[in-house]
Design brief:
- There is one protein chain.
- By secondary structure, the protein is an alpha+beta fold.
- Helix content is 33%, strand content 29%.
- The chain folds into 2 domains: 220 residues, 3-Layer(bab) Sandwich (Hsp33 domain); 52 residues, HSP33 redox switch-like (CBS domain Like).
- Strands 1, 2, 8, 9, 10 and 11 form a 6-stranded antiparallel β-sheet that branches. A 6-stranded mixed β-sheet has the order 7-6-3-4-5-12, with helices on one face.
């Protein structure tokens, strides 16, 4: 695919330095993630930055798998969660007060925690990690997390608004200082000049060429990213069947209908008395008479 596509992540290497990087730009997928959510600007932008970060991390996994990041706290922003599959299919949500003023992330979340869950076929059990929030921005939080978990310095530049969620990721590899003692510092300074407008508008080849004009870069094939939160009424039906017909009838008699809310996909499933026979088909079969 071409990096001109609206939703993609692309990895790259500095050929003469032991430094790797990745760039993500989300447009259609990002609009779908925030559709009908009515997030205020502060929450929307935080959610977009975390979404871009999740794609950058997922796109760099040695063993592709399902990656779930969750930021949770007790401040005006209670939770951000983004789930990214091995195929880079996204779903997620935010929970926060209706209006949240801009402030450092540490204030917005209060006593916050960052959790990561990674599931892949190579591991019997999911990998889980839970750490305190350290940093005053989404970028700083994940830089600290990556520094601690991978023992290699990493930098993130993130941008999100109502149209785009973008991110630039760099990581210093173990042999970087041996190849060029000043290389990492030089690349950091150059990358720090990137603007949100450049990340949103420029083809990735042009963007990287403008940021690092004297460096030799190798770009890998861009990977497509998509929003994917399919309806799963069957799963909800199975949950209701597990309650038994008598319990479901009792709830319907009291409430008139059963409403099951799927927050992460922003969807409701409704069941009324007309759905009973479909939920419990075997209970409606005529009983056989023994002679």
């Amino acid at each position: 695919m071409s990096s001109a596509a609206s939703d993609f992540v692309v990895r790259f290497l500095f050929e003469e330095l032991d430094i790797r990087g990745a760039f993500v730009r989300l447009e259609d997928a990002w609009r779908s993630l925030q559709a009908r959510r009515n997030y205020c600007d502060t929450v929307r932008d935080l959610f977009g930055e975390m979404t871009a970060t999740a794609v950058l991390v997922a796109g760099n996994l040695k063993q592709p798998g399902r990656l779930t990041f969750q930021l949770q706290g007790h401040g005006p922003v209670r939770m951000l969660v983004i789930d990214c599959s091995a195929e880079l299919h996204l779903r997620g949500m935010a929970k926060a007060e209706a209006e949240v003023a801009p402030a450092p992330v540490s204030q917005l979340f209060g006593d916050g925690r960052l959790s990561l869950i990674l599931q892949n076929e190579a591991a019997r059990e999911p990998y889980q990690s839970l750490v305190p929030v350290a940093g005053d921005s989404i970028a700083a939080i994940f830089e600290h997390y990556l520094d601690q978990s991978e023992q290699q310095p990493a930098r993130l530049w993130l941008s999100a608004d109502e149209k785009f969620a973008c991110g630039l990721f760099l990581q210093k590899l173990p042999g970087a200082d041996t190849r060029d003692a000043d290389g990492w510092a030089r690349i950091e300074l150059l990358a720090a000049t990137v603007t949100p407008q450049e990340m949103q508008a420029l083809p990735v080849e042009t963007l990287l060429g403008r940021l690092f004009p004297e460096e030799t870069l190798r770009l890998f094939q861009p990977k497509p990213v998509a929003y994917d939160c399919p309806e799963d009424r069957d799963k909800v039906s199975e949950m209701l069947r597990s309650l038994g017909r008598a319990e479901v009838e009792s709830i319907l008699a009291e409430q008139g209908e059963i409403v099951v809310r799927d927050d992460i996909c922003n969807r409701e499933y409704r069941f009324d008395a007309g759905d009973l026979d479909a939920l419990f088909p075997h209970d409606t079969m005529p009983k056989r008479t023994l002679h």
